[in-house]
């Protein structure tokens, strides 16, 4: 384990090799967790590189690592960037996780975000994209609190008739209400605790008369008003920046909207210049590849992310069509288009394709069957990974393949719709993908 020490890895390698039995999932899961505990014990206080996993007999743990069908140069560059942060604190590391309802729920992606930021003290960076999903009367993970006043009308990238100029969040909400405001509280009694010293407001206005501002320094005891801090425009990304006088975990954003004018909000980023993990997630229920490709400001917004690695979790909704109607070539070409948009911003970005989980599809009012299109998505992602020098995280295979969803449901990891996971299941996936990435980082592909 070159990042923890050569002696330690030699000891662990000998220990693990002498203790594991090939093909024995129970022993593999137990030994993996034991190894992870040993690694974490050897690390400096407060560091945690690996997360011990519980054992479930519905999981093939031997298939839960990253797969590299053709080369790993881009991923090696990502590992080197992680080195620069963890060993020297010389840069931040940016990640973008994009998908549909699996990502909008944010249990999976927030577990990843939390694991990465807890790897060692002092690497808490930008929290990522936030949005008041209540405006769209839809779900989100309440690991932050966000509320609003005024009348807002939301549109999402799954709506083909949407007229909003959408970006990397895939959602927008427009208001002409002079009482409109958004209040953000980053931390709701959880660890880690994010802060910000500026708030970036993504969106656009109907005229230059429209702007956003915050009120800071209000004296609640004396009832004195605070100072108004107006947003300034970042012309490169067409976003607005509200500079805050000190690090804080909460603020309220107000809007100056003259009569007859509107402001369209597409996202909020609580920012800090502290070097660390910057984990951005973009998920919209029902989103497929065409949904993200119709986001006209996607490439521009990705300049705010500058991703070093992208987790592609798009495919479940693309494959939700009758057998024989899934167009593999169109699916791959749509992914190529999306990849080109990312590479236009981050040319040396690494990619991880997260395959579809096994899902069920209703074929009639009374009949639901395992969706065989999941096999086609998995094969397409391996083909794309060979083209792009990318990694594959094969959820479909380690779940147990076709028709494995009922076993995950019976284990309490999947919902009764046999498409979505329970919170326990999503957080387990977040721990498993994180461990797969860190396992690769520690061994740099040297495992047999």
Query: How much helicity do the residues have?
Result: 25-40%
Radius of gyration: 23 Å
Helix/strand/pairing class, anyone?
alpha+beta
CATH class of the largest domain: Alpha Beta
Strand-residue proportion: 15-25%
Largest sheet, if any?
6 strands, mixed
Q: Write down the overall geometry.
A: globular
Number of helical elements = 12
Number of strand segments = 19
Q: Could you give the distance between the termini?
A: 14 Å
Kindly report the name of the CATH homologous superfamily of the largest domain.
SGNH hydrolase
> Mean pLDDT, nearest integer?
89
Give structural notes.
By secondary structure, this protein is of the alpha+beta class. It folds into two domains: 230 residues, 3-Layer(aba) Sandwich (Rossmann fold), CATH 3.40.50; 139 residues, Sandwich (Jelly Rolls), CATH 2.60.120.1360. Helices cover 31% and strands 23% of the residues. A hairpin with a 5-residue loop joins β17 and β18. The longest helix has 21 residues. The relative contact order is 0.17. About 4% of the residues have low confidence.
């Amino acid at each position: 384990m070159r990042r923890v020490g050569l002696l330690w890895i030699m000891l662990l390698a000998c220990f693990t090799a002498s203790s594991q039995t090939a093909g024995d999932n129970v022993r593999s899961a137990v030994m993996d967790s034991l190894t992870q505990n040993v690694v974490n014990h050897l690390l400096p206080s407060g560091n945690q590189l690996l997360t011990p996993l519980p054992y479930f007999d519905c999981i093939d743990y031997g298939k839960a690592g990253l797969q590299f069908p053709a080369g790993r140069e881009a991923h090696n560059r990502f590992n080197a960037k992680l080195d620069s942060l963890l060993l020297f604190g010389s840069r931040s590391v940016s990640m973008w996780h994009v998908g549909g309802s699996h990502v909008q729920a944010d249990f999976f992606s927030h577990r990843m975000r939390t694991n990465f930021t807890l790897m060692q003290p002092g690497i808490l960076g930008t929290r990522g994209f936030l949005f008041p999903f209540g405006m769209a009367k839809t779900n989100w993970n309440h690991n932050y609190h966000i509320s609003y006043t005024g009348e807002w009308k939301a549109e999402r990238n799954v709506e083909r008739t949407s007229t909003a100029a959408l970006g990397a969040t895939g959602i927008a909400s427009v208001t002409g209400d002079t009482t409109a405001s958004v209040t953000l509280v980053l931390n709701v009694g959880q660890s880690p605790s994010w802060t910000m010293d500026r708030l970036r407001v993504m969106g656009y206005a109907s005229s230059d008369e429209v702007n956003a501002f915050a009120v800071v320094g209000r004296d609640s005891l004396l009832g004195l008003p605070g100072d108004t801090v107006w947003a300034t425009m970042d012309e490169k990304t067409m976003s607005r920046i509200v500079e805050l006088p000190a690090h804080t975990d909460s603020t309220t954003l107000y809007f100056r909207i003259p009569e007859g004018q509107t402001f369209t909000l597409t996202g909020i980023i609580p920012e800090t210049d502290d070097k660390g993990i910057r984990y951005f997630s973009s998920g919209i229920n029902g989103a497929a590849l065409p949904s993200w490709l119709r986001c006209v400001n996607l490439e521009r917004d990705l300049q705010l992310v500058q991703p070093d690695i992208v987790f592609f979790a798009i495919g479940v909704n693309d494959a939700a069509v009758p057998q024989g109607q899934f167009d593999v070539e169109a699916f791959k070409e749509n992914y190529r288009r999306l990849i080109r948009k990312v590479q236009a911003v981050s040319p040396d970005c690494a990619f991880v394709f997260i395959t579809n989980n096994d899902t069920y599809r209703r074929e009639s009012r009374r009949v639901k069957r395992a969706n065989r299109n999941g096999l086609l998505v998995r094969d397409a992602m391996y083909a794309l990974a060979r083209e792009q020098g990318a990694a594959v995280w094969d959820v479909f295979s380690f779940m147990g393949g076709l028709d494995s969803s009922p076993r995950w449901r019976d284990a309490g990891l999947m919902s009764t719709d046999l498409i979505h996971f329970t919170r326990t299941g999503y957080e387990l996936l977040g721990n498993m993908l994180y461990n797969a990435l860190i396992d690769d980082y520690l061994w740099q592909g040297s495992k047999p």
